[in-house]
Amino acid sequence: MTDMHPILLLVDEQQLVHKGVRKMLAEAPEIEIHDCYEGAKAVAAAEHLGPTVILQDINMPDINGLDLLAEYRRHPAIADVPVIMLSGTSAAEVKAEAFQRGADDYIVKMPHPIELIARLRHHSRAYVEHLEREDAIKALQREKKKLAAANLELERLSSLDGLTGIANRRYFDTVFDREWRRAMRETEPLSLIMCDVDYFKLYNDSYGHQPGDECLKLVASSLASAMQRPTDLVARYGGEEFVVLLPNTHARGAIKIAERVRQAVLDLQLPHENSAVHDCVTISMGAATVAPMIKHQIGELLLSADRALYSAKEAGRNQVICAGI
Fold first, then answer.
1. Does one domain contain both 213 and 312?
2. Are residues 87 and 176 in the same domain?
3. Could you tell me if 64 and 57 are in contact, meaning their C-beta atoms sit under 8 angstroms apart?
């Protein structure tokens, strides 16, 4: 973009000035000149043209040049275009006011061609470089947004189980640790439910691994759908085993949720002809609750829920057993 040629918008009501400027710029054919003879039309002309520099008279019959300068600055599309004021006076106070009002340069009529060309080239190049920086910053911001979105998606995917689409063991461990510390800090109960698909090995042996995977997906979906709070977490713990984390939930509430989950899986009515419990897929569940204190270890809640799950299996499966620490 730095190779872009200067585009000059010349704003002056005098044809003589336009002819004089064009004559002076004859030695700089790369400068593209556009004429505007009415100050009132200059803003619209600039927005349409997109000049890289504006050269305009400071005194025009239809509008004050400094007021026109302020108009440029109020229009976003041309607000940063450099404006060189062209004046018939070299009075210091006039120059000072022009710069105070936002002029980028000030030239007394009529300058030497070499000086005019140098100033036009300088301001045009500076503006083009400004545009390039703005474009680069916007491109960088877009890339940062894309990268942030990609990182969020990567983080989301890394927290999900590849088969079932629910949270994986890694994500569960992270949330479990966070909720344990929060429950201890706020003296709230924390409940955990371990779930196991009954006789799942026999299901795989009978129907094959692909139907077995579909079974796990449906069970996972049923568990997730049974949750009623965004803070409740369902995760695949490994194989056919799932875990449900229930922050701020007492034992009675955990049992109620576990029974709802157990019934939701049974309602799937997935045939399981080799199950010793039911002719459909069922799950066994072990629940445990604790209000964490300094004396407790986080692994105790897992161990207690796992023991309760074992007890549910020993007692005939397709049921919920709750334990405490």
1. yes
2. no
3. no
CATH number at residue 55: 3.40.50.2300
Structure tokens that stand for 95 in this block: 């120059």
Residue closest to 127 by CA, chosen among 79, 75, 80:
80
CB proximity list for 94: less than 8 A, separation 6 or greater: 58, 87
Please give the model's pTM, rounded to 2 decimal places: 0.59
What is residue 6's DSSP assignment? P
Q: What are the tens digits of pLDDT across the range 47-64?
A: 999 999 999 999 888 888
Per-residue b or e along 286-320, where b marks 16 or more CB atoms closer than 10 Å to that residue's CB:
bbbbbebeeebebeebbebbbebbeebbeeebbbb
Look at residue 1 and tell me whether its pLDDT is greater than 60.
Answer: no
Burial class (CB in 10 A: 0-12, 13-18, 19+), 241: middle
- Note down the domain range covering 275: 169-324
pLDDT in tens, 105-157: 999 988 899 999 999 999 999 999 999 999 899 999 999 888 888 887 777 77
